[in-house]
Amino acid sequence: MYQGVSFAVAGLSLLVGTAAASGEVIYSNDFNQHSAGAYTTQMLAADFDAPWEDGVSEGRVAVVDDAEAFSGRSLRVMHVGEDIKLGGKWIMELDRGYEELYASYWVHFGPGTEFVRAGKLPGLAGGEANTGGNKPDGTDGFSARMTWSSNGKDGSQVPTTSANLNQYLYHPDQPQTYGDTRFYDETHDGRWVEVTSGPWYHIQHRVVMNTPGEHDGVVQAWVNGEPVFYVDDIRFRDVPGLQIDVFRFETFYGGSSMNFATTKEEYFYFDNLVLSTDWRPMALPGDTNLDYAVNLTDLSTLASNFGQPGSWHDGNFDGDGVVGLLDLSLLASNFNSTRIPSPTSAASLLMTLLLTRWR
Hints:
The chain is mainly beta. The protein has helices at 41-48, 296-305, 325-333, 346-358, and strands spanning 3-9, 12-19, 25-29, 37-38, 53-54, 61-65, 73-79, 88-98, 100-109, 118-127, 141-149, 162-170, 180-183, 194-196, 200-208, 217-223, 226-234, 244-253, 266-276. It has 2 domains: 25-276, Jelly Rolls; 293-338, no CATH class.
């Protein structure tokens, strides 16, 4: 049983206390508690209690609704054109340290996104939450953010209208001063996990701390519910007091040089951020109200919005901004289906084992 205090405000919930039971959601935010408009420092303080930020006070972060949103309202971050590292950045210090934690969220890269070379996406961390060339020493901290990059598997560049997803780790054994890039691989045939502008993607990753001094730390990732990455040989720490106690919300272009910069303003969108002690499933296409079931309620919602602009909660599942025939087909293909919150389905377990053997 969770011992502590639970705070809940509309779409935001944060649990604070001394211990979390198995399967506990320790933080969730769907941003529906805010009206559409500028995301202010007051909102940031209420949502994340961030000790510092970059991008909110400069007006680069907003709450959006209607067709721009995933469901209800979403968070939008603007990346400044012709510059680097000017997106949105802040951290949330957790109520305590965790030996194992999952982070999940939905992300959408706005229309016409040019990914250029690379950039950063949110992830878990601990201690000093090392980044920026601050290589960990086993006692000070670590981080396990995500990145996107345009490097192909053979070293070539993919078109800048798409990018590959990676795990970006700061740990004592990283081979260079800056982070250790580990590409997601869902097929093992040379194609990595590729994203483009348009669709919403469900991202989830898991970090398990290593036995102090040992190479047995785990990092695992899923994209759209499919396992795409697994390693179990990371040394994050040499001391037991270093745990997962920070969430780094970061999205920016870079890299340390201007050839990472985009040529124009780019908009990335985030929604349904969840930190938990167990795996959380993504919604099935067709599940407008995110209750892990596709049924008549969802069909009625889609029907009432058919032919109209809309987001996921209106019935737009293919990301084109309009509720149409393809969305109806997606709902029909999942009608009367449910998605149970468990990562140990046969398919997921098999893929995890394959990834373990592959790497």
